[in-house]
Design goal:
With 136 residues, this protein is an all-alpha fold. The chain contains four helices and no strands.
Length: 136
């Protein structure tokens, strides 16, 4: 168990905590700037965010540990099923409350933008790491 914790679980918990905290603070600031002092969606919105961030962390762990040599193929292979999982979750939330007409478009844009940004950062990090290994 300790090796599993040290190998990937500790990093996954850290990434989850940072992403969830960042998303929550950003959401709160945006609501305050719009003049809303309370989240109109309440606790469900917090749980929805927690589940979406969990799916994002699963994608991160998969990209990091999946054994495919081409980085972009690996990111695409992980992106498609995790995006489908996000869409399924959004669809399920429609049973709890009515979805906005732009719900699927919004989550597609938000998830894709974040996924692409993190993928580019990961690619740059890998390029820098590989160059430093080549110099040794």
């Amino acid at each position: 168990m300790k090796s599993m914790w040290n190998n990937w679980l500790k990093q996954a918990v850290f990434v989850y905590s940072v992403l969830y905290t960042f998303a929550t603070i950003l959401n709160s600031v945006l609501y305050l700037l719009k003049g809303h002092y309370e989240d109109p969606n309440g606790n469900w919105h917090e749980l929805d965010r927690a589940i979406i961030v969990f799916i994002i962390v699963i994608a991160y762990i998969l990209v990091k540990n999946l054994k495919i040599n081409n980085y972009w193929v690996k990111t695409f292979v992980v992106y498609i099923p995790t995006l489908i999982l996000v869409f399924v979750y959004i669809w399920l939330t429609g049973f709890r409350e009515a979805l906005a007409s732009s719900a699927y478009r919004d989550i597609f844009i938000n998830y894709t933008t974040g996924y692409l940004a993190v993928s580019i950062i990961g690619w740059i990090k890998n390029r820098i790491k590989n160059r430093s290994l080549d110099r040794k």
